[in-house]
């Protein structure tokens, strides 16, 4: 069974930085796309950033230039470096991957990021 273990969330002041990690285990299939989404209460889950196996990235306009997404294919791990954090970045951040030839999706449980003003 595929497991996604997220880490790195927490409380930080505005202007600060956090680094989220998501490690995938439990499958021998190739991990294709990896990414982070976020969701606040009462709102839809939204894409933050995503990265292909080859390293091509896509960012939400709200985080472009502040967040950097990277991955280590040997470790099946994706990283989200978040700099210049703003209070509006406060949310639960979810890791998502798709794997195998059929592109099966799997989600992490989420990690809370809180940015104080």
Please tell me about this protein's structure:
With 117 residues, the protein is mainly β. The protein contains no helices and eleven strands. The N and C termini lie far apart (40 Å). 31% of the residues are buried.
Topology, element by element:
Elements: E1 3-7, E2 10-13, E3 18-25, E4 31-39, E5 46-51, E6 57-59, E7 67-72, E8 77-82, E9 91-99, E10 104-107, E11 111-116
Parallel strand pairs: 2-11
Antiparallel strand pairs: 1-3, 3-8, 4-5, 4-9, 5-6, 7-8, 9-10, 9-11
| Content-based structural category | mainly beta
Low-confidence stretches: none
**What is the alpha-carbon Rg in Å?**
14 Å
Nearest-integer average pLDDT = 96
Regarding quaternary structure, what we see is single chain
| Gross morphology | globular
Number of helices: 0
Strand content: over 45%
Estimate the helix proportion, in percent.
under 10%
Termini separation: 40 Å
Overall number of strands: 11
Secondary-structure element order, N to C = EEEEEEEEEEE
What does the largest sheet look like? 7 strands, mixed
